[in-house]
Amino acid sequence: MAPANKAEKKASIDAAAWMFNVVTSVGIIIVNKALMATYGFSFATTLTGLHFVTTTLMTIVLRWLGYIQPSQLPLPDLLKFVLFANFSIVGMNVSLMWNSVGFYQIAKLSMIPVSCLLEVVLDKIRYSRDTKLSISVVLLGVAVCTVTDVSVNAKGFIAALIAVWSTALQQYYVHYLQRKYSLGSFNLLGHTAPAQAASLLILGPFVDYWLTNKRVDAYDYSTISLAFIILSCTIAVGTNLSQFICIGRFTAVTFQVLGHMKTILVLILGFLFFGKEGLNLQVVIGMFIAVLGMVWYGNASSKPGGKERRSYSMSSSKQKHAESAELDDKV
């Protein structure tokens, strides 16, 4: 196949993977918001555990159909990943509860510089000036959109710090494990989803009781609330899979930068479905700045020298990962 055709095919698959992630991520946020705000199901950690149960069932079916081949992931690496991932989930929930909305949004924005730092230190990535500036524009735009009141307290700051670093490490580790062990997204999910499902279902009810002072078993389940829980779990399969595909194909930093497009879409859909009182000139200006920064980042990071690795010791590992990514191309 000609290089131009290969580049076009890769661009098409990258766009499809990204749209898959955007649609499922925005969809699950809207469904979960309705489930929690309208039907009072405030057990976020337990719900995430159910998400991974559904994802585990999906990986079992895919393994049975032959889409997941036997692979190895050492137990220490698996445990490290699950630790980062679970601290990320609990940390985000606690940060949202203990902090103002403004400081919570600032903490989420800080994931990009933290992810950049991890890539610079651990992967020897070098960013061009344009790439750095474009990331700054994205952060500015999303900050204008989302950051309102900002108040900080000691325990909220600690929760945000844990949430930011654990999330950045978890997303970095997705890319790292796929490269190191030549794992496709299906294979990595097949290893990690069962462990996350088991740990979150055990810890989830206790964490949720600590956060909400409510018991998940005492919730008044109705047909509609159960339907929303099932819908949330179904969409979560696509969200988890698409996250692994996108981080595997891109990097944690690119995933974070483009991920703010989901923030903008959630704002727009929130205005449409849950009331338009938050739609004002400041938010519109922020959206415009953020989109401009994302376009700039895409152009800057794809240029020679825009974002490159200073050490090429993992080039053979990357080549192996490219072969394992062929299965992801079929998604």
From TrEMBL:
Biased composition (Basic and acidic residues): 320-331
GO CC, alphabetical: membrane
InterPro entries assigned: Sugar_P_trans_dom (IPR004853), TPT_transporter (IPR050186)
Record localization: Membrane
Chain segments annotated as transmembrane: 12-31, 43-66, 78-96, 133-150, 156-174, 186-207, 219-238, 250-273, 279-300
UniProt-annotated stretches for the region Disordered: 302-331
Membrane-topology descriptor: Multi-pass membrane protein
Residue ranges constituting the Sugar phosphate transporter domain according to the UniProt record: 23-297
One Pfam family here: TPT
UniProt keyword list: Membrane, Transmembrane, Transmembrane helix
Domain of life, per lineage: Eukaryota
Matching PANTHER family: SOLUTE CARRIER FAMILY 35
Protein name, per record: Sugar phosphate transporter domain-containing protein
